[in-house]
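User: Some background: our group keeps a shared notebook of sequences we're curious about, and every so often someone picks one and asks for a predicted structure to add to the entry. Today it's my turn. The entry only has the sequence so far, pasted here. Could you supply the structure so I can complete it?
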Amino acid sequence: ASEHGHDILRNFLQLAGMNTRELA
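Assistant: Of course. Here's the predicted structure to add to the notebook entry:
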């Protein structure tokens, strides 16, 4: 379960980073 949660968090951070890059 811990691994699954970490993977989701990584995906979320990656998506947020992409959004920030587009807004920048």
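Suggested note for the entry: The first helix runs from residue 2 to 23. Residues 10 and 16 are 10 Å apart (CA to CA).
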